[in-house]
Structures are given as C-alpha cells and as structure tokens.
C-alpha cells in the first residue's frame, strides 16, 4: 500500500458536508500500513433529512423507492433458508453501555462474525446464488465458479462451491493480505493474484471466464451481468429478516454497494420509515462519490485503508441504481474511526458483550461513532434523529480477518483472550484459520 496523504475534497455546501480532524486520537493511532493517522469524516446526503423516522405515504410496490426486490423474491429467499434449518440465524446483541455513552436510546449489533461457520456475512449471498443456480440446472457439479474478492466473498464462494461439488478460482488484488489468501485456499479454492487492484481482478475474472467457459459468481455487477449479483444481494436480505427488533436508523458498510442494497431494499419494503446510512473508507468512498455525482463514479488515488472488504474504486451499477432511492446518507471515515470501533467492540464498557471484529466489520460502528462524536456531523446527527429515543442497528459484518491488525489496535493478543462467544467466527476460529 502507498503512503500518500488522504485528501478529502468536497464540492458540497457546508450544509451537507463535514470534514474535520480529531487530533486527540492521532497520538494513539495504529499505523502499521503507513495509513495517515487522520480522523476525518465526510458526509453526503442527497435529500432533506427532516422526515427521517416519520411515516410517509407508501410508494407503489414496483417503485424504486421500495427497493430492488419484489415480494415474490423475498418469499424465495425465505423459503430457501427455511428449508435449511442448519443455517442458523446470527445473534442480535444489545450494547446498552455504549448506547448511553453515545447519547442514543438503544444500540443493537447484528453480529455476523460467525455466519454459517465462516467469519463474515458473505455466505448468505454465495450459498443462495450457487444453490439457486444448481437447482435451475444452470450450474452442474464439477463446474468451475470464479470470482474476484478482497477476502470474504472469495472465501464464501469457495465454501459454497465446495458444498455444491464445484471447483472455485478466486482472483485477488496483488497486495491482498496473506491471511485472507490462506483462508480462501483453506476452503479448497485456487487463488490467483492479479497485478492490480480488486477492480482489476474483477475485469480479469470476466475475461478469463469467457475464455474458459467458467461461471462468474460475482458480488458486483456490470453491463450485461446482473442476474447473479442480484441473487447474491437477495441472499443478503435474509440478514434483516432475522432481526425481529425495530430500529430507526441502520448503519451499513459500503463496498461495491451489494450489502447496502440488500439491507436498504429490505428496509424500503418492510420498514420504510427506517433511515439507512452507508459507511465507507475515505480512500474508497465510491458510493459517496457516485451519489454526489448522480451516476457511477470511480475514485482515484491510493486505496490507503485496512478496511479490506470495502477497498474498491467502483460501485456495482445494479446496486447503486437502487440505493440512490433508498439510502438516506453516505459517510466516508478514516481508518482511525474503524480502529476506535474495533477497540470499543473488543473492550466494551459497562457490561456490554465483547465482539472481535475486523476493520470492515467494525466500519458501520465507526460511522455511528463519527456522527455522534464529531461536531461537524451535528446537522446529520440531528437530521437522523440520533437522540436519546433513537433505536440504532449497526451491522458487524465480519470477525477478525487480520489478526495482526486486531492485536495492534486492541493491545491484546489474539487467542490470548477467550473467544467472547466461543463461536466459529470468534477469536479461536480465526487463529485456527491462519
Ligand atoms: C466484511 C465486509 N463488510 C461489508 C462488505 C461490503 O459489501 P459490498 O461489497 O457488497 O458492498 C464487504 C465486502 O466484501 C465485506 O467483506
């Protein structure tokens, strides 16, 4: 990774943009990847926030404002998981101590760190897509499936392919962390390192699949390739179906926009008064850039972030087209905020449960920390209604994927502390996967 300074440029009016430095954190910041120790947060919201949390007339069933999917598709994904009772829901954890500290009414964490025996939410999409394709006869056992990944999607595809009797090839950026490569290879997949970034890997996968007749199982879409990413995003919506509790604001990680689209679509159809907020790393904030420009817009410059799952320059066009109508606000946070979130989850105060999360996994909480603690975000905080009545849902989308980073950020030793949940995605499992 490079060591260039992160420069945030914003063309917004002061009313809907905020960028600030938080120097009190800088001294303690972990800087292993020579990521600049700044603590900026930038926000963009396309429309008035004054109606956040208030009931509005419901748009027509097929309107983009109701999200990407139709009722029959939600039924399909419901039936799929209902028929697989071994696919158990992930826990919803309450963090009352942190809620009090942040001045909100309730903080719930959807803890994806042990999803279906892997340590990220991604198998929701990969297993749903691969098994659906098999059931349709579009994928036979023995076939080769391919994808590009920064780690989690590749691992999920590798696992789902193995379970379906298929081969998997996963293309990764040249500088992908070795722990992530090992985790994918450990699922029996062939890992191909591409000379370039994740986005270069996406293009290489597409070209190689055409040459060899492989099936691309991509979580991002492109022109003429939408069916499988759509299935994957539909699979992600099951996460929200599992959450019985009501929330007013939901913070979600933004990578290519697939998870965001799944969550925001589900909310738009089932709980439209809920405000969905996207959170990305500053150097890879392509959803924010695209929302601001009103069309898919790639970001340039060094991708200086340890939030590896969110480290892409380009949005999924299918996802972006949908989230434009369903997402309330877009945040871009520096890694310092994600480090804060990792620490807060690992070492909770006031009896809250401990959660061992990776940097991408902690990113949504990083967004909530930034909005509630950084004074440049006051207007957004008030617009979202983040006050003592607010019920907030935060997704923790992965467990520890880079143990060295987690150790350095928390000052603890991975494996030295007991696995807080004893589950497959906790500390013990991650140690075993290395
Ligand atoms: C842990 C984690 N969270 C969130 C995301 C974002 O998902 P998407 O790229 O679909 O926006 C990813 C993507 O790989 C991820 O690995």
Structural account:
The chain has 434 residues and is α/β, with parallel strands linked by helices. The protein folds into 2 domains: 305 residues, Rossmann fold, CATH 3.40.50; 96 residues, Rossmann fold. 37% of the residues lie in helices and 13% in strands. It is built from 17 helices and 11 strands. Helix 6 links the parallel strand 5 and strand 6. The site of pyridoxal-5'-phosphate has 19 residues, from helix 5 and helix 10.
What strand order characterises the main sheet? 1-10-9-8-11-3-2
Q: What is the subunit arrangement here?
A: single chain
Largest sheet: 7 strands, mixed
Q: What ligand molecules are bound, each kind once?
A: pyridoxal-5'-phosphate
Strand content: 5-15%
The rounded Rg comes to: 20 Å
Overall geometric form: globular
CATH topology of the largest domain: Rossmann fold
Q: Poorly predicted ranges (pLDDT <50, ≥5 residues)? A: 1-33, 417-434
| Strand-pairing-aware structural class | alpha/beta
How much helix is in the residues? Answer: 25-40%
CATH class designation of the largest domain: Alpha Beta
Terminal CA distance: 22 Å
Q: Tally the beta strands.
A: 11
């Amino acid at each position: 990774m490079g060591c260039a300074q992160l420069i945030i440029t914003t063309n917004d009016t002061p009313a809907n943009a905020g960028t600030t430095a938080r120097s009190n954190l800088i001294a303690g910041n972990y800087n292993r990847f020579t990521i600049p120790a700044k603590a900026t947060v930038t926000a963009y919201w396309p429309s008035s926030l004054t109606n956040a949390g208030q009931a509005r007339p419901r748009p027509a069933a097929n309107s983009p404002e109701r999200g990407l999917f139709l009722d029959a598709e939600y039924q399909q994904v419901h039936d799929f998981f209902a028929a697989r009772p071994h696919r158990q829901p992930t826990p919803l954890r309450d963090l009352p101590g942190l809620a009090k500290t942040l001045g909100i009414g309730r903080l719930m964490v959807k803890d994806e760190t042990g999803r279906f025996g892997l340590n990220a939410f991604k198998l929701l999409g990969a297993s749903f897509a691969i098994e659906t394709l098999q059931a349709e006869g579009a994928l036979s056992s023995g076939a080769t499936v391919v994808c590009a990944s920064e780690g989690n999607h590749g691992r999920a595809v590798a696992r789902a392919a193995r379970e379906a009797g298929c081969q998997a090839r996963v293309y990764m950026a040249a500088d992908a962390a070795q722990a992530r490569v090992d985790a994918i290879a450990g699922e029996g997949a062939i890992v191909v390192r591409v000379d370039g970034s994740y986005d270069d890997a996406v293009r290489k996968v597409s070209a190689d699949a055409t040459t060899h007749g492989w099936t691309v199982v991509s979580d991002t879409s492109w022109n003429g390739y939408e069916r499988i990413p759509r299935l994957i995003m539909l699979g992600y919506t099951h996460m929200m179906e599992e959450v019985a509790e009501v929330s007013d604001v939901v913070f979600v990680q933004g990578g290519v926009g697939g998870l965001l689209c799944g969550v925001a679509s589900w909310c738009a159809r089932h709980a439209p008064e809920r405000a969905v907020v996207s959170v990305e790393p500053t150097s890879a904030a392509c959803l924010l850039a695209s929302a601001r420009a009103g069309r898919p817009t790639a970001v340039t410059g060094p991708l200086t972030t340890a939030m590896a799952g969110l480290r892409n320059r380009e949005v999924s066009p299918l996802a972006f087209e949908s989230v434009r109508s369903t997402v309330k606000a877009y945040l871009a946070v520096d890694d310092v905020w994600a480090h804060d979130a990792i620490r807060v989850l690992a070492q909770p105060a006031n009896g809250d449960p401990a959660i061992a999360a990776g940097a991408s996994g902690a990113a949504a909480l990083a967004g909530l920390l930034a909005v509630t603690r950084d004074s440049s975000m006051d207007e957004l905080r008030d617009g979202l209604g983040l006050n003592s009545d607010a019920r907030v849902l935060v997704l923790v989308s992965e467990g520890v994927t880079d143990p060295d980073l987690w150790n350095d950020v928390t000052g603890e030793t991975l494996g030295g502390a007991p696995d807080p949940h004893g589950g497959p995605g906790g500390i013990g499992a991650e140690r075993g996967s290395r």
